[in-house]
């Protein structure tokens, strides 16, 4: 089906705005992580009343991995460049490829296995001129975020109908961890509060709702591959809004990832159409 894949792509577009918004915000990483997760959690609770029920242990485990994903990503974006953070986090498809067969019994298709090195090549080119050895801590935090993101993808695929609950409680957990450090950062400006509101409602809350819905009809590995549209767009928004300029390797890598994303999105629909025409 095309709709679930489009929902995942829409989520990736919303996620991609995080780098620019976080760079423009003068608050610390802990303040941003706590503030946007609090807004996102309340947003999901308001939109989906069923998500307010106390989660079972499976949903709670997904909430924990989700909370780790969103907190560590903000911290990584503050510690290193937006390009470094998003590239390292979006190695998630490789971890999903390893996790999905034994956690949710989904074996990758031949097309997905072939797509992984293509995405790897594209992402490697895309950030070849961005990665540096000077931000080791930020890169390590981004790596942890990427592994947590892989567990989140596999977990949301497994709990399916309870995805909104996992997202809502995960955001509240992230806020509970990060917000106690709010007073250690600067006082927020009006712009900072507006950015937190945007990040919580659209970039995090709505994006993960769309992603969870899309996972109902999309295998975990393919979903993680489609979500790689995010690192293509992230440096574009960061360049337009915060002044970070992607290099020529980034442009070449972005073209490869966009082409692979379009192929993975349209290929099932084209295959079904060919089968129906026989």
Helical residues, percent: over 70%
**Number of helices in the DSSP assignment:** 13
> What structural class do you assign from the helix and strand content?
mainly alpha
- Identify low-pLDDT runs: none
Distance between the termini: 19 Å
Q: Strand tally, please?
A: 0
Q: What profile does the largest beta sheet have?
A: none
The fraction of residues in strands falls at under 5%
CA radius of gyration is 18 Å
Count of structural domains: 1
Gist of the model:
Helix content is 78%, strand content 0%.
How would you describe this protein?
By secondary structure, the chain is mainly α. It has 13 helices and no strands. It has helices spanning 2-15, 18-24, 29-47, 57-79, 82-89, 92-103, 110-126, 136-159, 163-178, 190-214, 220-226, 229-242, 248-277. Helix 5 packs across helix 8 and helix 6 (92-103) packs antiparallel against helix 11. The protein is globular. It starts with a helix and ends with a helix. The mean pLDDT is 83.
